[in-house]
Amino acid sequence: MFPEITHDDVFRLETDRLWLRWPRAADADEIRRHVGDPDVALMTTSIPHPYEPHDADAFILSARQENAVGEGLHLVVTPKSRPNEPIGLVSLHGADRRGTATLGFWLGKPYWGQGYTTEAAKALIDLAFGITSLDRIHSSARPDNASSLRVHEKLGFSRIGRGKLPAPARGGEIEVEQFELKRGEAHTVFGARRPRFSST
């Protein structure tokens, strides 16, 4: 799905306030600290709670492997002033033959309400539509997750219905609002320009 320029862990994306980069082994403690909060984990389908010490290590390894072969792109979100301190994550993964991938994100609770998730996701979406052949992006949010619903609206997603998704970390299925964003409809942070990205 993603071209070779994203397959190396020196790749990063820049926004006004943030760096988005590959997760590293050194990020494990900060990731554990943020997603160990039930208010973060329980709004997702895949983050276990309680979050055990080995869970962050396993996630980082899996994300790096997927990034390295271009099957997805998982990027930790860091403030520009603290590039070694992950405060969240945005990802695109699971591309199918119809040119559709899935957006996922989480943000540490101390950073809620400041627009970081929208800023980071806009950059990743802009990149994806700029350098891949994706035609659309799917995403979902729990109906009671008001902040996630707002993020989808800000990004330009359209609601396509309500349904249930497998949620192995929640012990079964959960009900979600389902969203779709088609190429050309994204409310991107860079407008018509492609995002700045670096491989050095």
Automatic annotation (TrEMBL):
InterPro entries hit by this protein: Acyl_CoA_acyltransferase (IPR016181), GNAT_dom (IPR000182), N-acetyltransferase (IPR051531)
Domain N-acetyltransferase per the UniProt entry, residue ranges: 31-177
Coiled-coil parts of chain: none
Gene3D superfamilies: 3.40.630.30
Signal sequence annotation: none
Family annotation (SUPFAM superfamilies): Acyl-CoA N-acyltransferases (Nat) (SSF55729)
Domain of life: Bacteria
Pfam families documented for this protein: Acetyltransf_3 (PF13302)
Annotated protein name in UniProt: GNAT family N-acetyltransferase
